[in-house]
Amino acid sequence: MSNLRFHPLEPLRFPLIHRFYKAHYPAGKAKKDEIIWVGEDTSGLVCCVRFKQFEHQQLLTGMLVHPAHRGQGHGLALLAAVQAQLQSLPCFCFAFRHLEGLYTSAGFRSIADDDLPEALASRIRRYRQSGKDLIAMQFDLEATNSMPRDASLEGHG
């Protein structure tokens, strides 16, 4: 894996993230009220993840790894780098079914839609109605604390 540097996006660099989504995931649109973390190397932006804040919880949304960098562990490394964010409020995500294993490896667990806060339950229903095959998941701090740390994820932050 290349030497990525993970950090919150500086507000002045918001147009960069907008172009990144437009180029690689046009359905995802970053918003200025979200908390955005990025992973970049000397060639530029490699991955990012957004957190939408609600009153008592947050939704991890729009995680994106540049297509040329997929399958190299960058998504998992990014999720390891944002542990403080994941732990700051109860954190949920709507994972594409084929990415369930990735999120499970990062400390999320699948949950029933009934276990989602209502604001999120209505949101996942809308997304599914538009044809997206999504699984509701919640970050599980206990599972993360009991998981062995992968030494290759250390020092990214």
TrEMBL record:
Gene3D superfamilies: 3.40.630.30. Residues 1-142 form the N-acetyltransferase domain. InterPro entries: Acyl_CoA_acyltransferase (IPR016181), GNAT_dom (IPR000182). This is GNAT family N-acetyltransferase.
